[in-house]
Amino acid sequence: MSLEPRPEIRNLDECFHGGINYAELRTVGIAPEEIIDFSVCTNPYMPPPIIKEIRLDSISIEQYPDTEATEFRQRLSRRLQVPPDNILVGSGTTELIRIFALAYLRQGDHVLILEPTYGEYEVASVISGAILVKQWMRAEDGLTPRLEETMALIKKYRPKAIFLCNPNNPTGKYLSRHEIEMVLDAVEDGLLVLDEAYIAFAEQSWPSADLYSRGNIVILRSMTKDYGLAGLRLGYSIASLEITNNLRRVRPPWNVNVIAQKVGCLLLEDTSYFEQTVGKIRKAKRYLTNEFSRLGFRLLPSDTNFFLVMVGEARSFRSALLKHGILVRDCTSFQLPEYVRIGTRTLPECQRLIVTIETLMSKGEIDVPS
Fold first, then answer.
1. pLDDT tens readout for residues 280-328
2. CA-to-CA distance for 65 and 159, rounded, in angstroms?
3. Selection from 251, 241, 239 nearest residue 91 by Cα
4. Mean pLDDT confidence for 333-352
5. In this structure, are strands 131-136 and 110-115 parallel, antiparallel, or unpaired?
6. SS3 of 268, please?
7. Which residues neighbour 110 within 8 Å (Cβ) at sequence distance 6 or greater?
8. 272-294 and 347-362 are packed helices; what angle lies between their axes, rounded to 10 degrees?
9. Is it the case that residue 127 has pLDDT exceeding 90?
10. Is the pTM of this model over 0.85?
């Protein structure tokens, strides 16, 4: 008889993500480079030219990377006005979520998750044996959190951790500083994991890095999303010194490779290129939202670089577009089977998406839900 895993692992459900499924593309006979990927929400104008010019022989890949990512943290420290010892670098924010769960969650702890949201919060919590408490946002509220209910759940269950994505994935809803501080006040001896993976694309964003001084919060940020580094993986956390040291104790050694660290340092040298791309993304998003509305689709208002579109049956909508080399995110895994998520890409790519949808509508392969 084979060795059985822990029961938490045996009952673990698969977490679905956006991005290319290479096995699926082989089945339908489409090469990955032929895909325009609207299913992910990364910066489509990245990485900047300076990154593409890096020579591999200029990086010491024969040596172990700096586990502490010292130079990168120091540059982040100057940018964020946060002490470097309060920053921990990870191979993307998903690794940091797992590190947090390993450091802080025990079997039987309650964890509050505001749904629908990023599925890795649940995965990390279940692996740790935590008990999930889910607050589901309702369609009649525009999928906006009802914070009075959130406060009641915190008071009732006294969760060890609350996972809150802001702006939220997949809804794009962005809570104010006042609302986040309300949650922090209610948490008391628990911890709020504030995932700001998409904060760089939020319109009228507010500064949050200083909240680490509250002592009951871990802020997550994603260089992967900001700079289109999905293939490299780079993110970081901001937290009190005590929390950061605890996370550091369980972090794997050499968890961020030398290339990712080098790229991260170079990206922090100049922000002008990134700021230009954000303006282009917002312009392209306005084009997309106007065109979807013109075609008769219902959209959920979003404060960041992606948005939800009600399409009737998400799986068939995705499948119809995929045959034409366009990938969108089926939101069935978010318990939103009538919606797809659209991540804004370059304006020409957005124009191709709309033209393709119009063509499919004219053929009766896509319908606007009544």
1. 999 999 999 999 999 999 999 999 999 999 999 999 999 999 999 999 9
2. 36
3. 251
4. 97
5. parallel
6. coil
7. 130, 131, 133, 157, 158, 159, 160
8. 20
9. yes
10. yes
Q: What is the largest CA-CA distance in the chain?
A: 61
CB 76 within 8 A of CB 85: no
For residue 229, the model assigns a pLDDT of 86
How many angstroms separate the CA atoms of 189 and 104, rounded?
12
Long-range contacts of 274-278 (CB under 8 A, 24+ apart): 274/43, 274/46, 274/48, 274/200, 274/226, 274/227, 276/45, 277/43, 277/45, 277/46, 278/200, 278/201
Nearest residue to 244 (alpha-carbon basis) of 79, 84, 92: 84
Nearest to 233 by CA among 80, 42, 17, 15: 42
**Parallel, antiparallel, or unpaired: how do β-strands 161-165 and 131-136 relate?**
unpaired
| Residue reference for tokens 């593409």 | 52
Note whether 207 and 219 are within 8 A (CB).
Answer: no
Q: Which two tokens stand for residue 255?
A: 């968890």
Give me the phi and psi of 47, to 5 degrees please.
Answer: -80, 160
Q: How far apart are CA 23 and CA 75, in angstroms?
A: 39
Sign of CA dihedral 333, 172, 89, 179: negative
Residue-range domains of the chain with CATH: 7-46+272-362 (3.90.1150.10), 59-267 (3.40.640.10)
Residue bearing tokens 């995932």: 195
Answer for the pair 102, 79: CB distance below 8 angstroms, yes or no: no
